[in-house]
Write a structure and sequence with these properties.
- The protein is an alpha/beta fold.
- It is 28% helix and 28% strand.
- It is built from 12 helices and 24 strands.
- Strand 18 (322-323), helix 9 and strand 19 form a beta-alpha-beta unit.
- Bound molecules: shikimate-3-phosphate (S3P).
Length: 450
């Protein structure tokens, strides 16, 4: 089936409420990892030949990346649920798109494709929804300009829409990333594919390494060495010929986080989440919840190119902890749901060093604090730290503003499953960007929504 026949997943604004539920029981598999899904499509498009992808996340963010790859000349086909084929055009083979590329809500899709385009001699305009138009693009455009790409149009302050003219002969650079961001690292490496010689990214805090793993999988010469206490130095040899290779996308730990915390908080729950990716650069939430006293047990551990495990999760009494700032890159998307867990813990949880949360799909630091306050939880922001005073329970009864942010929406609904009063959200529509079928999956485990 050609991709144009794939149904559009945009739903109208939809308020939903979650209420106190009976114990959650059963097994579930959350959708494929969003980070790997974007990268499999982009790197598949940069190989010569056909790459088969299984378990692709069919959320709006990833579908927008698939459309962008098609607009850049790759042929993309959906052959079944989660099964996709990408006919790549090779490194340097992108065609100039006729229309602006619309990335909807997705910073990852937009920033990674900016990198891939920067290493090709074509011009492309990048755009997105109202949330994405507020997010900073300088962090990617600065290094891409150092590599020879030119920004020929932009809205104020490096905001979308941005028109980028890629470089005919990109320059290989050595780039120490000023912010801990896998998107920035990945954009530079993808641009480096078009450059002769070695492109190096140095990160002070190691961030998710799916780009590096997939580049290696498709045959690139890429080396990773430790750098400092928590950092890495990654070196890619440019202008490779990438060869197609099948990709199986494991379940997304950032999506699994929601049913996982729900099972910890709803008394009497006992669930299994199947085939969750446990790449150590993504498991900060699990480490933190375990420190808080959570019963999370890997029951079948295996390695399919990424480590995966089935996770058994049982309701647990949690206690407050201090979460160090160095852990932030390994759980950057999980703070809203960790803050919910912290509200139901006994004692104070301090989450340190959350500056990056201010530039996510919403100002997630402010939105997380407002979500908890609206439901009777005492919470403070001190500098870049979030401090939650846990009382072992939450009153609930609030209506949460989600600010076009899927993770605020899902965190608030999980809160409602364990609070004394229901918790409402203004709009569940954005959940489809990363976790289509969230409400149905949670209902299957016993969660109650209105
Ligand atoms: C992502 C990196 C993170 C994360 C985002 C996905 C990726 O963003 O928040 O949801 O796939 O590279 P930053 O690179 O901005 O930290």
């Amino acid at each position: 089936m050609p991709m144009s026949d794939f149904p559009a997943m945009t739903s109208p604004a939809r308020p939903v409420a979650a209420r106190r539920s009976a114990p959650l029981r059963g097994r579930a598999r959350v959708p494929g990892d969003k980070s790997i899904s974007h990268r499999a499509l982009i790197l598949g498009a940069l190989t010569v030949g056909e790459t088969r992808i299984g378990g692709l996340l069919e959320g709006e963010d990833v579908l927008n990346t698939a459309k962008a790859m098609q607009a850049l000349g790759a042929r993309i086909e959906r052959t079944g649920a989660g099964d996709w084929r990408v006919h790549g055009v090779g490194v340097g083979g992108f065609a100039q798109p006729a229309e602006p590329l619309d990335f909807g809500n997705s910073g990852t899709g937009c920033r990674l494709v900016m990198g891939a385009v920067a290493g090709c001699p074509i011009a492309a305009t990048f755009d997105g929804d109202a949330s994405l138009r507020k997010r900073p693009m300088r962090r990617v455009l600065d290094p891409l300009q150092e590599m020879g790409a030119r920004v020929t149009a932009e809205a104020g302050g490096g905001r979308l829409p941005v028109t980028l003219q890629g470089a005919r002969d990109a320059l290989p650079i050595v780039y120490p990333t000023p912010v801990p961001s896998a998107q920035v690292k990945s954009a530079v490496l993808l641009a480096g594919l078009g450059a002769p010689g070695a492109t190096t990214v140095i990160e002070r805090e190691a961030t998710r390494d799916h780009t590096e793993r997939l580049l290696r999988h498709f045959g690139a010469d890429i080396r990773t060495e430790p750098d400092g206490a928590h950092g890495r130095r990654i070196t890619l040899t440019g202008q490779p010929e990438l060869a197609p290779a099948p990709v199986v996308v494991p379940a997304d730990p950032s999506s699994a986080a929601f049913p996982l915390v729900a099972a910890l908080l709803v008394p009497g729950s006992d669930i299994v989440l199947d085939a969750v990716m446990t790449n150590p650069l993504r498991t900060g939430l699990i480490d933190t919840l375990r420190e808080m006293g959570a019963a999370i047990e890997p029951v079948a551990v295996r390695d399919d190119g990424e480590e995966v495990a089935d996770l058994r999760v049982r309701a647990s009494a949690l206690r407050g902890v201090d979460v160090p700032g160095e852990r932030a890159p390994s759980m950057i998307d999980e703070y809203p749901i960790l803050a919910v867990a912290a509200a139901f813990a006994e004692g104070v949880t301090r989450m340190r060093g959350l500056k990056e949360l201010r530039v996510k799909e919403s100002d997630r630091l402010a939105a997380t604090a407002a979500m908890l306050r609206a439901n009777g939880v005492t919470v403070e922001i001190e500098g870049d730290d979030l401090i939650v005073a846990g009382r072992g329970r939450a009153t609930g009864g609030g209506l949460v503003a989600t600010h076009m942010d899927h993770r605020i929406a899902m965190a608030a609904l999980v809160m409602g499953l364990a609070s004394e009063q229901p918790v409402g959200i203004d709009d569940a529509a954005f959940i489809a960007t990363s976790f289509p079928g969230f409400i149905e999956l949670m209902r299957g485990l016993g969660a109650e929504f209105a």
